[in-house]
Amino acid sequence: MNLKSLFVGVILASACVCVPPLHAAKSRSPVAIELVPHDAQWEVRYTLPRPAHTLHFVRVDRRGNRVSSWTPVDPSLVIVLEGGEEVVRRADGAAFDHAAFRMAPRYVTLEKDYAPFAPFGDGGLLIHTGRLHACAEGCAGDETFQVSLQPPEGAHAIVHGQVVPSVRFEDDNDGTNLYVGRAFPVTTPDVVAVIDQAFPPDTRARLQSLLPRLMAFYGREFGALTRRPMLYASRDEAHPGDGYGFQGGTLPGQVFMHLYGRHEAFGTPAFAARLDWFFAHEAAHLYQRYPVMANTGDSWIHEGGADALAAVALQALNVVDRDAVQARLQSSLDACASGITTHPLTQAHVEGSFGTFYACGFVMQMAVDAAARRASDGTCGLACVWRDFQKRVAAGEPWSTETFIAAAAERTDQRTARFLAAVANDVPAQPAVLLRDGLAQAGWEGVPQAAGTK
Fold it and tell me: How far apart are CA 65 and CA 60, in angstroms?
């Protein structure tokens, strides 16, 4: 279904729509966070439940971006970097129960985190509330935050799929994205989307066609989400400096992507195809139901799994062909073989090679898909294994390498299970041979060769 063909009529309420909390109330008294426009800047105001000597941010930034880009409204307050953590305190050491800061709504690239602002080319703005979360005297991890926002005159907000004149809701964990501007979302039964009018026309049309189909596919395979998912896609050609690129990800119930700067490649079919993979990967995350407390060493399950599920979805929707998947499998095989030459896959994060989780996980789960299809005469593939895995986790088994391999073994065979265990846990003498043989044994036709082989 094409989103362009749809129109959503929205009537704004008179004062403030108070969105109910997404989670049960936590035990700690919430810090109130108010966002208000101030000329060309935004002001973030904190009201503490009681006087405190320090204010600490939930999302740690060891580079100190807030130190350099947030200006205290009260000059007696300072943000300092202490032990790799940004801390707000009064210069005289006294306690305080209010704090306010002003900052330009610019996109910044952060280390392993989402930017607080993503400007839209049509004048709108996406705000990540999680970047604003802060706690008096330190954070325990179970805090809630009372977030409110007042859009500029003539604009509205979009929160949890609702168009509202102002916002007040209870926030927690990773936070959410709030849209502020004049655009209205368009909707299908499977997704609510806000796509920047400033996107390259071909890319915009492609997303408008693909995204509802992607969400419908995943919904059929894994069941509907509790809340209709949101998509935000923003484009900022006026990004300051000469930088360009794109970043995106997922928050609960949301997929988002920001394209910034200018580059001729952004308007090419190749880049549009790259975005197909990106959104298919990120959308898959929404349906994986990945637990926050999972072991980082098991990240090959959800990261490689999202890539593999994207390949399955895009082929089923006739967006990519087998040659495109084969090319991706080739590059992933090479990257995986290189990444497990000195340490097991489950230790990749310790060695600073997180990308190995993506590469090896993709190879491993494409092998699972092939083996499951062969064992079921084509009636069950990777999605079946994922559903079995999710049932095991829901029944109390850990989200772990062992649990996933057990689920895969039931739909494939013991050879495939041994292959998965060897890639995950061993340091193979010939990793490229292990990966090629594992794909071949699983039934993948046209197994890629490792780099440098014939």
Answer: 10
Cβ-count burial 30-62 (b if 16+ within 10 Å, e if not): bbbbbbebeeeebbbebebeeebebbbbbbebe
Among 404, 341, 320, 399, residue whose Cα is nearest residue 367:
404
Residue in the block written with tokens 């989200």: 399
Quick one: pLDDT at residue 11?
A: 29
Tokens standing for residue 67: 């130190």
Taking the model in full, what pTM does it have?
A: 0.85
Amino acid letter at 27?
Answer: S
What are the φ/ψ torsions at residue 104 (nearest 5 degrees)? Answer: -75, 140
Residue numbers in the chain where pLDDT is lower than 70? 1-29, 293, 449-454
| Whole-number Å distance between alpha carbons of 261 and 243 | 6
Nearest to 305, CA basis, from 278, 279, 285: 285
Contact, 66 vs 46, CB < 8 A?
no
> CA 266, CA 261: separation in Å to the nearest integer?
10
* Distance between CA atoms of residues 183 and 123, nearest Å: 9
